[in-house]
Task: structure prediction
Amino acid sequence: MGRIAGRFSRVEPRRRVRQLVLGLLSDLPRKNCWTIAEHTGDATPDGLQHLLGRAKWDADRVRDDLREFVLEHLADHQAVLVVDETGDLKKGTQTVGVQRQYTGTAGRIENSQVAVYLTYTSRHGHAAIDRALYLPKSWTGDRDRCERAAVPDDIGFSTKPQLAWQMIERALDSGAPAAWAAGDEVYGDNPHLRAALERRGLGYVLAVSRTHRVPTPAGPSAPTTFPSASRAGPGRSCLPDTARRGTATTTGRTSPSIQETRRAISICWSAATAAPVNWPTTAATRPARSRCPRWSRSREAAGR
Result:
């Protein structure tokens, strides 16, 4: 707490933020201002609500302090920057960013507030180092509504992949060592995010949806049109041994089987071998051709 104490000019918010952190680190089954206030001995949540809603302090500088603390303990040159979103279910319409939208918290479309998070993961451990609230167009297109909720005028609409890249770039620019980025199909389906990661020389493992089309020499194809890696025979995969960067996997709403995952990996690597003009490649990022004999023969038979 001593690291961030200087970000609060008054003793009251410093005391409140300590209570908040202790409550968040506790084993409370539900964590909100009411439960944390009771856990720390307060009769009402007024103090915590004031800290989060009206007290003057710079949340971004506290975030930077947290990132420095995490890197002091977890930094590793092979670390992974993991992006994912999560939602909080809401009843009303006044919470910033709330609308009916899909949230993994409920597994369906619900009235919710959604935010994107960045986690630093290494062999030493993992911790969240950044966050960005997702503001739907229903909010950014209504400036009166934003003004009533105290949303700054310079905040416009950004997609979740754009928010993810802003956080990844901020972490890299701050000197966070990392070799990989990872995320689900919300991020893997976005070609601009993949291109941005490649420009920074960052390897990535990003899922793509089952309906996502990938470029091939024969034209755009759905992942399900490619042969399965499981056909290569027991113990053999179409994933090249030298493949290390630019990997993507295909997932649906449910977890894929091992065979589906192996097939998806081979699909994206085989497609990347064709090096379409809109996929920038270098000697470091260009994947090797598949070593799977049956897959190679099928490519030759198709005139590829």
Remarks:
- The CA atoms of residues 92 and 111 lie 8 Å apart.
